[in-house]
Amino acid sequence: GRLLVGKGWGQHSPSCVRYPSLAAHHQMGYDGLKDCCQTLCRPWSPFKQLNGMSTFTHPITLHSASGGSEAEWRVMVDTGPTFTVVPSPVLGRLGFTPDDAVRLRLANGQVEHRGITEIEANLNGTTRTIICVFGEPSAPPIIGAVTLELFLLGVDPVGQRLVPVDGLWM
To answer: Which one of 9, 107, 133, 150 is most buried, by most CB atoms within 10 A?
Structure first.
């Protein structure tokens, strides 16, 4: 792995206590950087444009609340959002209503309160329960960081694909 620096991303926070030097981040690659700096080293996202490349999409299947139907489509992958975002009408058609509300900070610093729910999702043949945010009707669906972590998937932004990663044990 390598740390890509420039265009306002990959910037290391001097307050990071786990890997205090940029060289240590460089050795850890994307996963190590994300693990220690999810909130401290902002703004960080390996999905910002690099040589004309931007975000990419990946298939995901969301199962309905009743278990009888599902929605499958290609959605954007982005480690910036904490949770997976799905437009509210899609979640409604699948039989979901918000179970709770959370505070979420937008890239411009604005804070919004959004409904969330737990939903079964399938990525790469594995099914897990994930947290979905009820997005605006026009919001693009996004696979967020927590979903990627639950499925033990990392991001290969150059190859524009999800790759299996090892979970961390202590």
So the answer is: 133
Which tens digits make up the pLDDT trace of 71-107? 898 999 998 899 999 999 999 999 999 999 999 998 8
Q: Kindly report whether the global pTM for this prediction surpasses the value 0.85.
A: no
Q: Which of 64, 61, 76, 54 is nearest to 157 (CA)?
A: 54
Q: Which two tokens stand for residue 135?
A: 């997005």
Phi-psi map region of 99: left, alpha, beta (phi>0 left; psi -120 to 50 alpha): alpha
What is d(CA 87, CA 114) in angstroms, rounded to the nearest whole number? 11
Token couple for 155: 């991001």
Cβ atoms of 47 and 77 within 8 Å: the answer is yes
**Chain CA centroid to CA 75, Å:** 11
DSSP letter at 129? E
